[in-house]
Amino acid sequence: MPSASLPAVPTRETGTVPAKQPPAAERVYTHIKDAVLQRRYEGGMLLTEGELADAVGVSRTPVREALLRLEVEGLIKLYPKKGALVLPVSAQEIADVVETRLLVEKHAAAKAVPAPEALIGELSRLVETMREQAEAGDLAAVSVTDRAFHAAIVRSAGNQILDRLYEQLRDRQLRMGVAVMHAHPDRIAKNIAEHTEILEALRAGDAEAATEAVHRHVSWVRHLAQGDER
After folding, report:
1. Which parts of the chain have pLDDT scores under 50?
2. pTM higher than the cut 0.85
3. 168-204 b/e (C-beta count within 10 Å ≥ 16 → b)
4. Each residue of 115-127: pLDDT tens digit?
5. Which of 29, 54, 76, 147 has the fewest beta carbons closer than 10 A?
6. How many other CB atoms sit within 10 Å of the CB of residue 138?
7. Rounded to whole angstroms, what are the CA distances from 207 to 3, 106, 108, 109, 153?
């Protein structure tokens, strides 16, 4: 279980009175979670309380609080007197997420037809944003926008229960998305092309084409991610 020196949280001097900081435990929680989701802390890395405390600039007490919260969320595993192990994404987790996404997203895509102009406009903007982020090489941002594209379609279905269920997949989707893009950078252009295909099917009012495009697109996540994660 490799351990590594952890980067300090960046600060900026603005010359103005700084805004009140969140509680220490919340800052540690956000720092670790963002690093895990963006794979700065990769699966198999051992994090120690001391390193995390130094990285965020806090005592060890809020670090323990944050680690307990992250263990409940399934991102880390605590080992007393050793530290916290960042849990790798398992093949079973990938399969479960993809299966759930297909059930929710294909239903939402079919129900989105005929798509309102507001949804078409939002999806068009998100596709363009993905292109800009890809050109800038910001894979973490691409993953966030990718997820927002799909979430917008799910939200358009108007089912609040499904929307909340889909939201629970957010962290896992982001983590898997970054993993796939790092391992298969050529996939980014394909993702954008497939998003455009989904968008055009919705724009044309073709529910069958939209659900088929969603199925092909989401199913690729299983194949690519399983090849990246052991």
Report:
1. 11-14, 228-230
2. no
3. ebebbbbbbbbbbbeebeebbeebbebbbbbbebbbe
4. 999 999 999 999 9
5. 54
6. 13
7. 49, 9, 10, 7, 12
Determine the Cα angle at 139 with ends 41 and 112, to 5°: 115
pLDDT digits (tens, 9 = 90+) for 65-105: 999 999 998 899 999 889 999 998 888 888 898 999 999 99
SS (H, E, C) 145-171: HHHHHHHHHHHHCCCHHHHHHHHCCHH
What pLDDT is attached to residue 226?
55
Indicate the pairing of strand 46-47 with strand 76-79. unpaired
- Dig out the tokens for 220 from the structure: 């690729």
- The type of residue at 40 is R
Instruction: Give the strand order in the sheet containing 76-79.
Output: 46-47, 83-86, 76-79
Q: List for the chain the helix, strand, coil content (%; round to 5).
A: 65, 5, 30
Distances (CA, A) of 195 to 11, 36, 129, 131, 213: 36, 26, 12, 11, 8
DSSP summary character for residue 48:
-
CB atoms within 10 A of CB 148: 17
At 7 the pLDDT is 56
Residue 54: what residue type? D
